[in-house]
Structure formats: C-alpha cells, structure tokens
Amino acid sequence: MSDFEFKGVVRFTRIGTIYLITTLILAISAINTGNNALYIGVSLMLGSLLLSGLASKGGLKHLHAGVGALDDVWAGRPVRATLTLRNDSRLWNVRDVVLTSEALAEPVLIPVVPRRQSITIEATFLFRKRGLAHVNAIDSYTRYPFGFFLKKRRLRLTGEVVVYPRLLADATTDRFRATHGEQTTANRPGISSEIHSFREYSRGDSLRHVHWKKSASLGRWIMKQTDAESAKSVHVVVDPYLPKGASEESFDEMVSEATTFVYHAARDGFDVTMSLPRATYRTREGEAASPLFRALALIEPAFEPVHQVVERNTALFTMGGRRDAKSA
Amino acid sequence: MLLLAMFAAVPLYFTFAISTGALILFHVVLSLIVLRVAFGRTPELVPARLMRWVAMFYVLFYVVDAAVLSRSAIAASTHLVLFIAVYQPIESVHRQNHAQRLLTTALIFIASIATSTHITIVLFVLVFAFFVFRQLMHVSHEETVRSIGHGYGEAPVGRAAVFYLAGATVIGALLFPLLPRLRNPVIRGFMGPLAGSSTSLRETINFNEGRATVGDATVVARVWMDRETRDTFTPLRLRGMIYDTYEGGEWRQTFRGLRAVNQDGTTFVVGRATGVGSPAIVEMRAQRGKVYLPSATFAISGLSTLYEGPARETYYTYDDGPLTIAVRMSSDTEPTRLARAKMSGYPISPAVETLARTIVGTEQRPEKKAELIERYLVTNFRYVPNDQAAPAMSLERFLLVERGGHCEYFAAGMVALLNAVGVPARIAGGFYGGQLNPLTGYYAVRREDAHAWTEVWTGARWMTFDSTPPSLRPGAAPENAVRFYLAAVGDSLTFFWDRYVLTFGLGDQISLFEDLAMLASTAMESMSERLRADVRTVGAGGFGKFLVLVVAAGVVLILLQRRRRRLFDVLAAYLAAQGISVGPAMTMEEALRALREEHPEAAEELEPLIAMYEQETFGGRPDRARARAIKRKLAELRT
C-alpha cells in the first residue's frame, strides 16, 4: 500500500524520473551541438511525456464510480458488493486503475475501462466500526500509459451504509449459552397462560395484553407476557449508559456482546424483544432481525443513567457485561 | 528489452561512429542471451560473479580504449554503454533492473541518432519509439500488479502503443520547430545535407594524370528561378573555377589572394549588367569557402561576407552552414574592373595552329572565331566518359589524333585553338544543368553534374562557349519517366528533410515566429476591418445600444457563473485564505482536520458549514436555500 501513499495528486515514478533525466541530457546535448537529429529525439520524448500526463489525467478525470447496495454489513466482516466504474471520456481508455479506500478490504485492480463505457465488478468491502458509514470517496490511481507518473484522483460517491456491530468470535459465545436449547429451561417460563413477566410495548403487540396498572404507574405501555408466549422468547435490554472513565471501545464491546446474543437467539428461532431507552424492537421466529441489528448499530452511549424496565429473565447488557435480571 | 537494445544499436553500423567489430560482438553476445532466454534458461551467459569482475576490469579498459584503441572519448563511451547493455541482463538474475536497462537502451539510441543525418533515421526513431512504448506499458503494468500483490493477464499494448506513438509524433512534430536553437558556440553540431566535401572539380587540370568521376547524386546546390529567368539562363552553369594559365604542364588558376567586393548596401556587386536583371535563389553550402554562382551573375545578397579570390573571378565567403543566396543575372554582364585579358600560355604547336586557322578561316571577330571552333569540336569530336582505366592523354593528342575525350579536353582544346588564332580564352569549371524537380520547382545540382566549359574574351566581356557535344553533357542521358518522378519525390523528401529538419536553426525559428506574428497581425487586421464594416452597417446609434446589450449580457453571465460556483470551490477558496490548500483529491473533512491543527477557532466556525456542505452534496436532496446559506455564512466569516 505504501506505493499509494503520497501527498498531492501526482508522483513521479522511478522510471519517470529516469526518463526525465534522459530527456534532460538529450535536450542539453541537442542545444549544445545544434544537432537536429537529437532535437527530433527530444521532441518525441517530450511529446510522450506530455501525452502520458494528458492520458492519465484525461482518463481519470472522466471516471465516475458507484457502489451497489450493501446489505447485512457487519463490522470486521468482509462483504461483497458491486462497484461500477463509468468512463465518460470520448478519447481515452483507462487501463490499470487501482482503487483504494478505507471501506475497501483490499485494493481493486481494474484492467480497462473503455471510453464511453462502464464496467461492473465485485469488490470486497470491510468496515471496521459499527454505525452509519459514509462511502464518500474512492481513490483511483493509475500509472498508465507509460508508468512515468502515479496519478491519483478521488472519485466521489454518495453512499451510506449501516454497519452492524461486530459479532464476537465463537470462543466468546459461551457467555450467551442462556438462549441455547435445554440449558435455557432453568431461566425460561413454563407453558401456561399465567403471567410470566412484563415487557415494554413493541409494535404489533395486541392491546389486550397491556398491563394497565403497571402502564399507568410507569407512564408507558407495559405488556404482560404469559408462560406460553415466553416459552421460546427472549427479552434483551441494552443499557447505553457510559459511566465516567469507561472507554467508548468498551461500550462498543458491550454492544457487540448484545448483538452476538441477539444474533444467536434469532438464529436459533427465538422471538427476540430488545429494549433500548426510547424504543423496543421485536422479531418473531422466521423474521429478519435486521431492525434490531440496525438499532444496535446506531446506538450511541448515554452519559446519564437511563431508567429501563428489567423484568425476570431479561438479558441485560450494560457496561458491566450481560446480567440476567434474576441476578441483577 | 534485449531485442530493443539490439535494435537501438543498428544505426551505428551505418554511421561508423564505432568500429563494426565491437558492434558485431555486441549483437552476437546479446543474441546468445536472447537464445538462452528463449529456451527457458536464465540470461546468465557468463556467471554474474565473474561478470562483476569483468565490469571492474572494464573501468581500466575504458581509459585504454579512449587513449589507445579508439582514440576517441565518444567511441570509448559508446563501447562502455554497449558493455553495460550486456552486463545488465546478466545482473538482472539477482536484481530487478528494468529502469536501468531502459536507460541504457535510451543511451544507445541517443548514440545512434546523434551520429545520423540521413532521413531514414526518422523511420528508425518511430520503430524504436513503438517498441519502447510497448515496453514501458508492459513495465508499467507489471509495477501496478506488483503494487497490489495480485495480477491478471497481460494488458494488450500493441494497439495502444500505436495510438500513443501517433499522438507523441504529432506533439513532437509541433514541438520540434519551437525548441530553442541556441547552439553552443564552442562545440559545433553536425553539418547538414548539402555536400560539404570536395566535388569532382580540382584545383588544377593535368592531362598527364588519369582521372575518373563516379556518379555521385549528392546535391551540391538547389537553384530556384522564375519561368522567364529559366527560359534565358538554362541550362544552368554554376561557376567556381577559372583555369586561365597553362604552366608546368597543367592548367592553373591565378591566385591573387582575397579581395574585397564592392558593396551596395547589403548587396555585393560583382559585375555590370547592361540588360535587365533576372533573379534566382541559390541554396548551397560553401565548399571550403568557395561559392559557386550562376554564370552572368552581377549582384549577390544574402551573404554577410564575400571576397573575390583566391583565384581571379571566383568568390569566397566566411559564412558558415547552409547559405541561401539571392543573385541577379543578366545576359550581358561585364566585369566591374576591366583588366587586359591574356593568353593562357599553352605552347601552341604548328599542327594545332594549322588546325585552328583552318577552322576559323578568314574570320576576324573573336566571338565568331569562338563560334566556329565550338561548332567544329561539337560536330567532329566525340565525348568519351572519364575512365580510370584509360591512359592519360595530352591535349595535343586529343586535338590531332584521338579527337575524343571528356569535357575538360573539349574546354582546354577550345582554349588552345582560340589562343592559336590570337583570342584570349580560359577554362571555367563548375556544375552544369541540374535537374528540375517538378514537385518543388528548383534545379537540383549534383556532384555528378561537374563540368568544364570555355569563356572567351570578346574585347569587352567574357562570353561562354561549350564545345562538349550537348547530348553528352552532364544530365543529358535519357531517363525513364517513372525513375525520374521517383527521383524527384526522393529529392523533394531529402530537400524537406535537409531544409526543414536537419538544418532548421535559430534563423528559421525567428522566421517562423515572424511569419506567425505576420499571420496573426493579418488576421487581426482583417477581423478589425470586418468589425469596422459591421459597425458601419449597424450604424452609430444602434451600435451603442448593441454594445450596452453585449456588456450587460456579459455582466449577467459573469454573475450567473459566480452563482453557479461549486460549493466545494467556495469552501476551498475560503480554506486557501486560511492557509489550507485543498487539492482535488482532498475531502472537506480532511481540510477541516488540517485547519483544526492550524487555526482551531476558525475550524470551529467552519465545522457546521462543512456539515451542511456534506449534507448538501451527499445527502441526495440538494437545497438551494442551504447552499445560499453556506455561501452567505462564508462571506460573513470572510469579513
């Protein structure tokens, strides 16, 4: 990558420097001797140098880039997406274009973009942090045609993508066994119509299950959850409070833990209800959990404690790590 | 790359800049390396370690080569470059040296073209450039692939190389006349096209020595004449030698040293015209200072120096390089200074005298006597081309026995016969005829057109007579039309190459700029004239209104342009005023970061504007009010 790190928009390559020195020597010889055969050589060499600059500038100048839709993008995980390059030049074909960007997992080499044509390729993107990522620019580089210059141009893009939090590796998932199979029974409600627990209202809930008394006391709707409902469901509460002295990295780590928990629960067929300070998200068996991941991707740390309802068997994620309500 | 280096050295065979042996050795060694590579082996023809020792030894050898073997630093340096070109592919086994090898190839190329003056070098340069472009594209591609760590198939470069070669040639051709021609006054460049070496003409004519002239098509002069001049003064005679004395068994010129020629302003006057003057332009290179001028020339301009001498009525200049001389000729040209003409001093034998008297009979006038003798020789003698194998023949034998020989015999024989009847005469040497090039309109006079004729003193002036049979004079041989046309095309190309490429100099450059300036001035004048006419048409009152309208439209356009100025540029201009240069590859966020380091307060003020700008640019919903707000706020910040 060091080849592509330089200030400005153009850099002389080694061959370019040698070529320039040779041209200079030849020019001095021509002027010194008045030998027009040498002048022919100098003219041609200068012509090539000029043409090389024009070609690389003219080619990159008319290049436009666009990124296809990026779905289910996880922090730290490469994702394939289409990258379209359009060459609006009427004259220049662009060859050997290298694309680099913070969003790209590795530099992409485009063999050729013919004039007045566009090409679409698959590229691997990699976002390191969760949140709303702007893909505003991709740097394009080319040595074409003669390799005298390494020319750079930033291609503007208008793309933004929600990057889900990083999923933790298998070794760390032991902490989330609570949702797995029979081991969950200890903390899981039984199958009956009795009230098992309470939770925040989420869109799609029937008003018949509102616990009016609790709702009135708390000032927001609280839903009753029966044993039958809770048999294969899990309630997750993410507390965004970032205590003084705690780092944002540890906050992200906590969000990653919550995300990993939700990811595994949803994968294993649980209905997941996730409560955040101002919203509750719910996914049922077979539904995509993307709204939950999206919410986790965009969650910001709060610098004041936030009150949240934490009932029995709720998985609470706070800066202290995950705690079941029972033990909380 | 190996083949390219071999190709770059090919012209050296023709320029003789270095010995052919060294060149053959270079090509053989490189061919062996090429063969090794073609058979999938390394280019290590000689073990690299040993080659390194050889290279060290070569440093010493270079001095010996320059001082003893080649006796030329240029030749020794060329040998050194060739050696490096052999060393580098062997070295490449252990070290990537593409760039250095390219440089070495370029140096061989420079050595090749620097010593070439022939037009075919253009073809070589183009072919070489094509291969170099291909190679450069290949290397560029490899560098790109290396930089990202993975590759793909070879990029197609053949067609692209042709495209770029065409482009570079066009740009090169445009640049060529514009590059400064400021020649170093100490080290002179290579000479041009017109023959600078001796012609087949010699300082003396000695019939006791055999001589031969071979066909040499090198152009010694080009002469432009208009149609009227052509009618009067062709066949053309360019005179440079006057053999007026017979002494010591040979015909000699009378050397008197250099004498100043009368000048009228910048024109040198070498004769007195009694008739109307006709112009001609002669382009030539002075041959060891000697200028060959058309017979009957009486005025010369275009030279900064001109002397009569060293022989009588021949001319000498110190001007260097290709000369473009404007001459005026008259059919009746008399010398500026009347000098008594004398006899040549040729010992006339009674037999020759008898022959002469027989020819002239009772005729008394010198020009009539000359006419009779000329007619006699033309009709009764035959032309024998110069032949080295033929034995030397005396003039006496030519006149009385053989009655045949080459042009110098005819000219000298006529002088001897005229002297025998009391008429002063002399042999004139120079070039005769030349070939009219129908494509360019000039007469190309070549070395093979060298000729001798006779000048006869009539009492007031020298008259030209030529006793060599006309059909046997230079250039008289019938020529195939196709061949003639091809020769004309070839000569036109050579002329173009000589005139506009090889000898293109500072003077031409100044003329070119003058012409361009003149062209621009004429165009401006014509435009201005047209505009004035238009103004007159529109009428004074109407035009005033029209002018106001144009100015108003211009102001509106400028305002619109200012309004349309991109937000990025407006922000970049503000940042530039703060000392932050925003390049085209820089985002506003990066610029803001840079500003924060330099002026944190200014950055704080600018930050919301940058946020608005990003929202405006990348938000997908452009809002003109927002853009206006950004510009207004920026204007406030500026104040």
Structural notes for this entry:
The complex is a heterodimer of chains A (328) and B (639). Chain A has helices at 14-33, 36-61, 212-218, 227-230, 248-267, 290-298, and strands at 10-12, 63-67, 73-74, 79-87, 94-100, 108-113, 117-125, 131-142, 149-164, 195-200, 222-226, 233-238, 271-276, 279-283, 314-318, 321-324. Chain A contains six helices and 16 strands. In chain A, 26% of the residues lie in helices and 32% in strands. Chain A is of the alpha+beta class and 328 residues long. In chain A, strands 1, 3, 5, 6, 8 and 9 form a six-stranded mixed β-sheet that branches. Chain A has a five-stranded mixed β-sheet with strand order 14-13-12-15-16, covered by helices on one side. A three-stranded antiparallel β-sheet of chain A has the order 2-4-7. The model of chain A is unreliable at 175-192 (pLDDT under 50). By secondary structure, chain B is of the alpha+beta class. In chain B, helix 3 runs parallel beside helix 5 and helix 6 (98-114) packs antiparallel against helix 7. Residues 185-199 of chain B have low confidence and may be disordered. The chains are: A alpha+beta (328), B alpha+beta (639).
